[in-house]
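Quick one:
INPUT:
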């Protein structure tokens, strides 16, 4: 296990998870829609961090640029718990 689990490390692991699961690597598409608005990539998983609400959560971009909790559902966890979850997902599928 890493001695220090940083947000940057968790973001890198989240990027690897998107690659492993065949999801879009970016939350925002390179192209804009016909009206010039940003287009979001459905299915992309992003690491969400908010210290006021208790830490980390993974969120999935949904249709119409909405987001839903990917894991954990309806709560947030510590950096160590997120690291363990991501490593488990990545190692289980290698």
């Amino acid at each position: 296990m890493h001695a220090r689990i940083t947000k940057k490390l968790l973001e890198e692991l989240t990027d690897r998870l998107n690659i492993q699961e065949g999801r879009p690597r970016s939350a925002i598409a390179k192209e804009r829609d016909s009206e010039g608005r940003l287009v979001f990539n459905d299915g992309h998983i992003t690491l969400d961090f908010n210290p006021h609400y208790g830490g980390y959560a993974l969120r999935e971009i949904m249709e119409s640029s909405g987001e839903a909790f990917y894991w954990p559902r309806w709560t947030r966890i510590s950096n160590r718990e997120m690291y363990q979850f991501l490593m488990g997902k990545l190692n289980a599928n290698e």
